[in-house]
Amino acid sequence: MTNPATTASSPPTNTPATSTQGVALIVAAAFFMMLLDGAILNTSLPLMAQGLGVTPLALTAGVTVYLLAAAAIMPTSGWLADRWEARRVFFLAMATFTLASLACGMAQSLGQLVAARALQGMAAGLMAPVGRTLVLRRAGKSEVMAAIATIVWPSLLAPVLGPPLGGFISTYASWRWNFFINLPVGLLGLYAVWRWIPRTPVPRPARLDWWGSVSSASALVLLLLGLERGAQAGPQLDAWGVPILLTLAGLGTGMLAVRHLRGTPHPVVSLVPLQVRSFSIATAGGGTLFMTCMQSAPFLLPLMFQLAFGMGAVEAGLLTLAYFMGNLLMKSVTTPILRRWGFRQVMTVGGTVAALTLFGCASLQGGTPLWLIVALLVFAGAMRSMQMTSLNTLAFADIEPAQRGAASTLSSMFAQLAAAMGAATGALVLALSQMAQGRTALSAVDFRVAFIVMALLALCAVALFRRLQPDDGAEVSGHRAFVRT
Q: S-S: 429 plus which of 107, 242, 371, 450, CB 3.0-4.6 Å?
């Protein structure tokens, strides 16, 4: 008798075989659309609020609901990919994101925009882990590093290109085009997924672990909501009560979720990848702390340029493009560097240098020559690029193929936390510095303190990287083969 699950998961005859790198490029294009959509809005909020007749503060609900909707669906993404087949789930998520983008651009009220953003967020919460799973399930050990480097690119470029692009579109066209530009990218991406990404047969999973799904989603939502509220709390002490309570509730719920996931035979998210030393260090350990520090820089720099140095929004946005130059310069040399020195040495030495770039940002002043600021940002972008590629590759270097889906879900969850903690921690340090000095407005000193704190935390993360063994991830980086020669 024919197994219906196997039949449903068989590759269609009209879908040609595609290389791992080809699949990675398609997934990376989808990621870029998704991440650019989030980054592009920050500079557009005032004009969007004016167009919808609301205050900019009210419009932040559209940002928050996107973040929370993505967090709510993310823990279940792996189960859905196994139940309905990863390619199909990714296609439907991309279609939903594209249609939701159209709805955002056509919104005539705050309520309509928030509803469409919630739908966008749910789609994004599926696209990130399922897209990574599509790539990793095809990749052999020798292909993992190149594939990860490809799908990491959007997370390097989108936060840098988004702010100046959003400001340009909103100023010279309409804020609605911030969403409409997703339509051609989404349609081309849908065609590419359907035409060139083959299906990936997998066994049907057990029944959905409802309690694990609800508890892990609740923990992630509460944590992200607490961190997001903390990023907006400002210097008033009484405004930090709710963010702290939400964060503590998220941590408590997370402990209950972990206890359940460890004890149930078929958890919605398997914690087995965390038993692998390299994955644990690259995600739950030093990786999340280090990426929190790196993610704080794109939040702090534009604010410092405008509020402390008196630059305009356009000038501040253009300076962030120096990060792009650094990313571009580093892309072609990261793989040879990892092959020559291995993950442990690259992440400890490179991480230390990246932390030093945060100290460099702390030393900037209003009178610092522009060429020196640009040079520092280019170098910082290069080190950020190398560390992000190293961390993302190491996370999957020693993971067995059967656990790559669970590892992808866990990695996406930690990445969400790092992004939120970067902004929240930076905002908290700014507020505490401002309160300590009894001022009503931020000054250059507050930003200097924030960068120093983030640099010190980054060095703490580097200390955790030293727990790696010299040959961790060597099968992927090729470092062991180099040593033998």
A: 450
User: How many C-beta neighbours within 10 Å does residue 11 have?
Assistant: 14
Q: What is the CATH number of the domain that holds 362?
A: 1.20.1250.20
The pLDDT value recorded for residue 38 is 78
What is the C-alpha separation between 472 and 153, in angstroms, rounded?
23
Query: Do 34 and 213 contact (CB within 8 A), yes or no?
Result: no
Q: In this predicted structure, what is the pLDDT of residue 401?
A: 86
Question: What are 265's two structure tokens?
Answer: 């035979």
Average pLDDT, consecutive stretches of 10 residues, N- to C-terminus, the chain (485 residues): 37 53 90 85 76 78 86 92 91 97 94 94 94 88 85 80 79 88 93 87 80 94 86 70 91 96 93 94 91 88 85 74 78 86 93 96 91 93 90 92 90 88 85 81 90 96 93 82 46
Domain shared by 198 and 230, yes or no:
no
> Could you tell me if 301 and 351 lie in one domain?
yes
207: left (phi over 0), alpha (psi -120 to 50) or beta: beta
CB 127 within 8 A of CB 97: yes
Cα separation of 68 and 221, whole Å? 5
For 252, residues 6+ apart whose C-beta sits below 8 A from its C-beta are: none
DSSP state of 175: T
Retrieve residue 37's tokens.
């959509």
Q: What is the reported pLDDT for 5?
A: 38
Residues of the domain holding 236: 209-267
Residue 82 CB contacts under 8 Å (≥ 6 apart), including other chains: 202, 203, 204, 205, 405
> Domain check: are 148 and 64 in the same one?
yes
**84 lies in the same domain as 107:** yes
Q: How far apart are CA 481 and CA 474, in angstroms?
A: 8
Residue 6 covered by a domain: no
From 188, 204, 220, the end of a domain falls on 204
Return the closest-CA partner of residue 413 out of 298, 248, 268: 268
Q: What is the DSSP letter of 307?
A: I
223 and 199, same structural domain? no
Q: Answer yes or no: do 280 and 252 share one domain.
A: no
pLDDT attached to residue 416? 85
Q: Are 186 and 285 found together in one domain?
A: no
Same domain, 189 and 245: no
What 3-state DSSP class applies to 196? helix
| Counted domains in the chain | 3
